[in-house]
Amino acid sequence: MPRSSANRSSQPAWLLPFVIIAVCLLSGLPLARLLYAGLRFSIEGKATGLFSEPSTWFAIRNTLTTATGGMLIAVLLGATFAFIVTLTDIRAKGFFSFAFVLPMMIPPQVTALAWVQMSGPASPLLKTLGIAPPLGSPQPLYSLGGIALLLGVQHAPLVFLALKAGLAALPRDGVEAARLAGASPMRVFHDIIFPLAVPGLIAGAAIAFVSGVGNFGIPAILGIPASIFVLPTLIYSRLSSFGAGTFAEMSQLSMVIAVIAGLGLVVQQRALRGRDYRIIGLSGENAAFSFGLWRVVAEAGLSVVLFVVLVAPVAALVASSLVPAYGVPLNFQTMSLHAYSEILFRQSVTLTAFANSLFLAGTTACGLLLFTVLTAYLLTRRPGKLADIITGLIEIPYALPGIVLAVAFILLFAAPLPLVNVSIYGTIWIILIAYFSSFFAVSLKPVASAFLQLDPSLEEAARLFGAGFFRRLRDILVPLIAPAAGASVILVFLIACSELTVSALLWSAGTQTLGVAIFNLDDSGSSDLASALSVLVVTMVVILMLLLELLAKHLPKGVLPWRN
Amino acid sequence: MAQLILNHLSKDFGTGRAAVSDVSLTVRDGGFLALLGPSGCGKTTVLRMIAGFEQPTDGSIVLGERTLADASGALPPEKRNMAMVFQSYALWPHMTVAQNVGYPLKVRGITAATWQSRVKDALSVVRLEEFADRRPADLSGGQRQRVALARCLVTSPDVVLLDEPLANLDRHLKAAMEETFREFHARSGATMIYVTHDQGEAMALATDIAVMSEGRLMQVASPQDIYARPEGRVVGGQVGQGAILDLALPDHGPRLLSWSVIEVAFHQTAGPSRPVLVRPEHVVADPEGVMLQVTSCVFEGERFSLSLRTAGGQHLRAYSPHALDCGVLQPFVIRQGWML
Lengths: 564, 340
Description:
A: mainly alpha, B: alpha+beta, 2 domains
């Protein structure tokens, strides 16, 4: 009689080794390689020159300045929006939330490009409106302040979401009890709501800081023209000027980034200590405060902010994509679709980039799903220490700044692969593997929450009625998690398609991605082509997000990053 | 088919307290066993070990000639030829009623005409033929329950397991579903194991009741036996209505006590006391009896339910055809009692 000794749970015996090997190859190996290189080079003292150069210290100082400034702006913007949208009686909350979170999904280099097109002497938008500063005056965004401002705008949604999750769980009866006890609305905010919101605020601030440290797109567009370097752009410029010969320095610099990001998280942990307020009581309906007659004013205020951070930059981007050359004002005589026909039909660089990005994003989104379905199944059916370790290993590459991950993959694949003696460095495959590693966590989350939500008896029933593992997977599990799997594919595609940071370090001639193409076009002065490409990317982002919105009611809570 | 034997079955989840310890019982072929006990007593764990979802840490499960599980290994659930009605019904929301019911056949490679006719038969038994193309979401709770039952009926399982199947239904539906279960048992002839915390259900349905408490098996007997002759305080307190009196009685007398024995014990205050189960139907108002104080009187529809207090401060329950005032003293006779 066929008997298995480990059938307490329903997974077949090969599943655990399969998942462990996949996770080790995609996460463990590159991380270990980076750690090894960083430690070895420090011990051998190969990169000592690095820390005696003033440029390194400038970059560290700039990174800290811009990340901190960006964090402060993000907290200010995100917290204001979160408090108003969740706690008051303003209308169109769904619209405000969606629109406010949109900048987060727009690639940072596109945000930066759009803001550059919105301000400065050559802005087609300002020229058209006749309010452009005189030619020759400096572009105000090419500065530390400009980088910090855009980091703040880009990461404000992160603070908004972290805070909104906490505020949504705020008990309405707690607020009502305080009001009955005689507290004024301001008093309630000060005594009840703010203390309960602090953990979300700290968490959001920490994410904003860490994201600011790792951001590449914004300081690349705004900083490099003005020779202002932060750590990620310093690594990039070293790699492009000295090639792969600077391994020691690159690994050291990326360790510095990792350490700064890690310190941010440690500060967060310390700040959160002792602030674990479990919310007791009913939450839900929570329009705790009424603006009364001021409601229209509040709504107008939010709309103005949205106009500045979203509508105006996108309008500027569209305007620059329609003018024939840099610095020409937009009107009915000058307007043309030349830039679009150029990037879509003539420029081989952009055509290759389209093909590469669609291939990379499509393969990553669909290919990862195979791993994530099996991994998510294993993690839900076999909870415990091992599952926690696997989850942690999957999350690190996503949490790590993209530039650090890219360096890890360069170190890992710079030498030819053992046994087969083929090098994938410089090919599209190294980008693909890095994407698999980087987006594993993105792909896993929707599928894992769908599995968690699934009543285990649905699978047990199929089991008892005679269905083996693959049969259950095909007949019961996959159909039931299909909406979440769809969301996972779209989400990974959405992020991977316009990704810049990882591919900026890993691309070479012929393997450029859309993100790299936008960056290079802008760098070479073709801002009309860069803008046109960006407009297409933003359009695609919005379409995919709307598609996910349509799917939203079939999805477990928390799957879509802009909803909760 | 054959009898199902649980042999010193134990399960420890590593929490420090065994979920199930040393449960041995035999379910005869075609029997209908109810596993009765409060939540957390280990009855569901026993059921899940029989199904194969959990592996015993000790002991074995034997069905006829086949050892289904012991501490060294277990036959996976998909190879056990069992069926189960889950507490949540576990209907697959993406399949129609017919597809749900027919899934066990599909897995066994039965197709087309045979599939059609057997699904139709199963649905007709639970009177749901016209719902074949609906989705589970469009059905009421009772209808879902019947679909889950039809899914067990469609193959010929050796054992049918039912995990609190009536817990989510209202009272009227419960009565109707009990009838369906009885029919189902008579028709299929399968061995059935029914987990419940509701003794009324257990009494009404099962041929045998196994009472569990804190992971241990307290008693297995027919419903009549367990009602009339429960073993120990736990079973006595759990099965049927009643109150437990502590009376001074000799150790080796007969366990079924008549009024004359009880009356003597009532007036005796010295000596070690023994627990005696008194059913409310055996406490009747009678001028010959002892004086008891009425502490509450609740109207229950067909009669009044009384709570009584003895002179020694012990509590009893009784029924009365008419209302009594709280606080009055009245004589009652205890027709019989059962020494636990």
